[in-house]
Write a structure and sequence with these properties.
The complex is a heterodimer of chains A (277) and B (354). Chain A is an all-alpha fold. Chain A contains 12 helices and no strands. The longest helix of chain A is centred in the first third of the chain and has 34 residues. Chain B starts with a helix and ends in a 24-residue tail after the last helix. At the A-B interface, helix 1 and helix 4 of A face helix 3 and helix 4 of B.
């Protein structure tokens, strides 16, 4: 057969991605649970915590609704980060089933297994983000800066999702079974999401934590989304912040590029080594 | 002792058979060695499979059959030794090998959430075949394997036999010249087993080269032109099934006496009708002996035992099994190994494979 335009790696990756997406569609329980958790988080934080957390820089009358608008981009960020865990479990599951032997005895590009996994996970997130956006609108979140900037915010979220999926895959390749993959896959995500500005303004944290959180790529992502959506950012006018929080979009793009450049080759090497002994 | 003399003879004949020229070999392996930590799964395995033939690799669990197949299908690298498949080196030209082979392993390598049809088209596209051609081929295979009705249901709803058929169909999508079947009928019901044998027979008639591994002499007998017996990672015998069975001494007559005290009398009675000394197992009250002559011997044995007043619980005329082959070749029975567990892709090196 003629070599396809974008090469066999892309072709095989798309075949594997299609297979992964079909598997998700046929497993509605899994999809349902991956949608329910962020929805519950939105409702929990909006209604239970909403009144208690003041947002710096927002007008006092705005009150709880300011927090809800502040919160939604944080939930978006947290959801895309946590989706990395499903990449970890997904790849661990693939590696422990007979199908991986089928793949390895085929003349397909071996990289396609990882490429298809991360691509499918990112595509699945589009649906999740849509559901989240609707839930947000229901509890009072609004987009103030128009559709173009909002779309760019969603693209940033998807890029970040794709990036952490590769980290998730790399972790999953070290896991001997899906149970340990579940635990390990979630473990690193808690510090990543809670040591950031996703849920609370940084001012309330001790200084050492503020520094870490300021340089956490997730904080930049969430801040970028807040700015693009026109939601309260939790930043005070006239105060200077560390570089990532002054240039959140640039820092998000930069850190995604660096993380991908590190973890894609790491994952590819790990896959090759773990499957040829 | 007879058994060790036999094994010496068969070892030398095995060596000379495998030093034959490999110019026409679909599969050729020389001195394959593979360790898993401390365990030596393959200990210098040699193999020649001429094109268009079926070779059965026969051995108990742990003998090295699956390890050998995994090396030949590029899933594992040998620690030393070399192998070529269709003339391509399995380590240095792995992709070329993958293009011409099909593999059906012990555990069905199919995707549970995809339908039968989707499984086949996915595999076809990963062979880099044109999508339209693949769709037609999938339909053809589904019909051939009686899966057309279930084709558009997820494989997770299929029975064990159906899953195995999808697995076999997937290995045939690209019309492989060489097919590797690793214990393809283990765990299948008799009906499915016969169906699978019929399909394999068809493939062989069409010119496909087949390397088949099995624990059952009957299966190797039925399907293979040539049988290679392996144990502890090396070849211990090689020949057609008739040759092997002659080495074993043909059929065995086995009786179970009712009263343990009559065992020695039973053995004496049996030696009157058998070709060699009977073997007595006091625990199971079993006396067995090699015989020739089919059912006439059976009738005569019963008469002799009856005349001697020996009460028997059971009498059976048995075709040789793998245990008999091993007993004759190695002086011991093929070790009892626990049944293989479903694959867990452990990262450790201490895992022993069969």
């Amino acid at each position: 057969m003629r070599r396809p335009v974008l090469g066999w790696g892309m072709h095989d990756g798309l075949v594997v991605a299609r297979r992964n997406l079909l598997a998700t569609l046929r497993n509605p329980e899994l999809l349902f649970f991956s949608l329910i958790q962020p929805v519950i988080f939105v409702l929990l934080f909006a209604y239970v915590f909403g009144g208690a957390i003041p947002v710096p820089g927002a007008s006092p009358e705005a009150g709880a609704s300011a927090y809800r608008e502040y919160l939604m981009p944080g939930i978006f960020g947290q959801t895309v980060a946590f989706a990395a865990a499903s990449s970890t479990v997904g790849i661990a599951e693939d590696m422990s089933k007979g199908i991986i032997d089928r793949f390895r005895s085929l003349p397909m590009k071996s990289f396609a297994v990882l490429f298809g996994r991360t691509l499918a996970d990112a595509v699945r997130l589009i649906l999740v983000l849509a559901v989240l956006a609707i839930t947000g609108l229901v509890v009072g979140w609004r987009i103030h800066n128009g559709a173009l900037l909002a779309s760019f915010a969603f693209l940033l979220l998807l890029l970040f999702a794709y990036t952490v999926a590769w980290v998730g895959v790399w972790i999953g390749l070290y896991m001997p079974n899906t149970e340990t993959a579940q635990t390990a896959g979630l473990l690193w995500l808690f510090p990543l999401t809670f040591m950031s500005n996703a849920f609370v303004p940084l001012e309330g944290m001790p200084t050492w934590l503020q520094t870490f959180a300021s340089w956490n790529p997730l904080s930049a992502l969430v801040l970028a989304c807040r700015e693009l959506f026109g939601n309260p950012t939790g930043q005070l006018p006239g105060q200077t912040y560390p570089w990532p929080l002054e240039n959140p979009i640039a820092y998000t793009l930069l850190s995604c590029a660096v993380i991908l450049a590190i973890f894609i080759p790491l994952a590819a090497r790990r896959y090759r080594n773990s499957t040829s002994h | 002792m007879t058994a060790s003399a036999n094994s010496a003879n068969s070892a030398s004949s095995a060596n000379s058979a495998h030093s034959a020229s490999s110019t026409n070999s679909a599969i050729s392996a020389k001195g394959l060695v593979k360790h898993y930590g401390e365990v030596k799964a393959l200990d210098g395995l040699d193999l020649e499979v001429p094109e268009g033939t079926v070779v059965g690799l026969l051995g108990p669990n742990g003998a090295g059959k699956t390890t050998a197949v995994r090396i030949l299908t590029t899933l594992l690298r040998p620690d030393s030794g070399s192998a070529t498949v269709a003339g391509f080196d399995v380590v240095r030209q792995a992709d070329a090998v993958r293009r011409v082979i099909g593999l059906t392993g012990q555990y069905a390598a199919v995707d549970e959430y995809l339908t039968g049809r989707e499984n086949l088209t996915m595999v076809g596209r990963l062979y880099h075949l044109p999508a339209g051609w693949v769709a037609d081929r999938a339909q053809e295979l589904l019909e051939r394997f009686n899966l057309a009705d279930a084709a558009d249901r997820p494989v997770r709803t299929y029975s064990g036999g159906m899953r195995r058929r999808v697995d076999l169909a997937a290995s045939l999508v690209a019309h492989p010249r060489i097919l590797f079947l690793d214990e393809p009928t283990t765990g299948l019901d008799p009906r499915s087993r016969l169906d699978l044998w019929a399909v394999i027979g068809d493939l062989v008639r069409e010119g496909t080269t087949v390397l088949l591994t099995t624990q059952y002499l009957e299966e190797a007998d039925r399907l293979a032109n040539d049988i290679v017996v392996i144990d502890h990672g090396r070849v211990i015998a090689h020949g057609t099934s008739d040759v092997l069975k002659d080495q074993v001494g043909g059929d065995r007559l086995e009786i179970v006496v009712h009263d343990r005290s009559q065992l020695s009398q039973a053995a004496a009675a049996m030696s009157a009708v058998s070709d060699a000394a009977p073997i007595v197992d006091a625990d199971t009250r079993r006396v067995s002996a090699p015989v020739s002559g089919g059912s006439t011997v059976l009738v005569e044995a019963v008469r002799v035992l009856d005349t001697a007043g020996i009460e028997i619980d059971d009498v059976v005329l048995r075709r040789p099994t793998l245990d008999d082959v091993f007993l004759a070749l190695t002086g011991h029975v093929a070790e009892e190994e626990p049944p293989p567990a479903p694959p867990s892709r452990g990262r450790g090196r201490g895992r022993k494979e069969s």
